[in-house]
Amino acid sequence: MAYVATGLIGLNALIHLYILWMEMFAWEARGPVVFDGLFPDGAPDMFAATASMAANQGLYNGFLAAGLIWALTIRDGLWRRNVATCFLCFVAVAGLYGAVTVTPTTLIVQTLPAALALGALWVNRRSAAT
């Protein structure tokens, strides 16, 4: 189970590295594709006008990825689990907020992988104790 938790934490980090890249460096190219259908008229000029805001959001996603990667490098099991739990909770809450305020798809893309990783992380803790 430790391998599953580690893999899911790594997957969450990769998701947030992708979001960082998209929002900071490819907002005008990928944003309209990723958020297709979110705006009734397509809002063709919205992505250029919001590029700096998206870059700021991308930076925050980079911080989430950095925290998850940091958790993967910690050797002490208790400390690693606590740091991973903290950052996975950040991801899950951000995903819930995004699902309510932006698009329900965020629940699947962001919250679900974080919840699965949290579950694997804590199931592993219980099985290691017995």
Give the proportion of residues in helices.
Answer: over 70%
Gross geometry: elongated
The succession of helices and strands, N to C, reads HHHHHH
Residue stretches low in confidence (pLDDT < 50, at least 5 long) are none
Mean pLDDT over the full residue set: 90
What's the total helix number? 6
Care to describe what's here?
This protein has 130 residues and is mainly α. Helix content is 84%, strand content 0%. It contains six helices and no strands. The protein is elongated and about 50 Å long.
Question: Any chance you could write out the topology, listing elements then pairs?
Answer:
Blueprint: H1 2-25, H2 27-34, H3 46-49, H4 51-73, H5 77-101, H6 105-129
Summed up:
The protein has six helices and no strands.
Observed structural traits:
mainly alpha, elongated, 130 residues
